[in-house]
Amino acid sequence: MAISEGLSIGVLAGRTGLAVSAIRYYEAQGLLKPWRNAGGQRRYQRADIRRLSFIMIAQQFGLSLPDIREVLAGLPNNRTPTPKDWAKIGVSLRGHLDARIDTLLRLRDNLDGCIGCGCLSLPKCKLYNPDDTARAKGSGPRYLLGDRPEV
Amino acid sequence: MAISEGLSIGVLAGRTGLAVSAIRYYEAQGLLKPWRNAGGQRRYQRADIRRLSFIMIAQQFGLSLPDIREVLAGLPNNRTPTPKDWAKIGVSLRGHLDARIDTLLRLRDNLDGCIGCGCLSLPKCKLYNPDDTARAKGSGPRYLLGDRPEV
DNA sequence: CTAATTTCTAAACCTAACTTTAGGTCAAGG
DNA sequence: CCTTGACCTAAAGTTAGGTTTAGAAATTAG
To answer: Which of A38, A73, B81, B122 is the most exposed place for a label (fewest CB within 10 A)?
Structure first.
């Protein structure tokens, strides 16, 4: 298979460690846009290996696939991304990561206060959802209330 | 409703901000064990308010319900937990939290290295899954490989 | 006592991120 | 040419953590 013909999905899966089905799924989510060969099979650029690596890293940082699609939109689509392009969106990832770390650090401080008194009384301890976007979404109304002295 | 008769599920929901359906679900997952009144309705102790608060906090820390069930197993089941009992499992929670924070900090350091070179070559940058249990489970084989120089 | 609330169970539905299956097509090796 | 392995699509299944629905029974308010 000559380079100009691109990589098949199986080869791409082998290079990234992803399942073939996952790669097709990412395409369905708009994260990848392979072209098709004469027989209708997907063909990928080598740059897509890096793209998939990026997706895996971003997922570890807690980004959803739609989030990642947005970040990837920062790449040029008329040419193969350069290391500089990747570095640029790496910075954007760093922002997400910093936010998550801050959240957890704040949570830890509050927990330390709670451990001291053993109360777990949330309004008092201020241990309520400090915009942890990973947890906050999806599950209906969940304002955190705790004990109240009476009843 | 006299105190000795316990709290109904609706009252408990009101106190915690959780949906009635969520409380029933937690019971199905073994996180709560209410008794039943003569008519077959669930009745809860006041200590269950604190138990539910704990569950909500632990979820924000990224623990799964099975994880939380394990942590809660550290509470005495023959008597109402004291503040001291809660403080003890709060410490256990702190351990989980520390681990998650460490993971993210390590990830951030690695990312900084990657931003510098723009490579996203995972084996080289060591940006592979450092046992982030929240992400690691569930989704098939996902060892992270990156670019290889050739092909 | 009656009407309005709650609660009950079981089962279906929901989202995210995939995998699996079924049935068929394409490509490569001998 | 033929067989085997890779690939295709569409649809259904999976897990976590719940919510919604339906129909029936219990409880509460007036």
So the answer is: A38
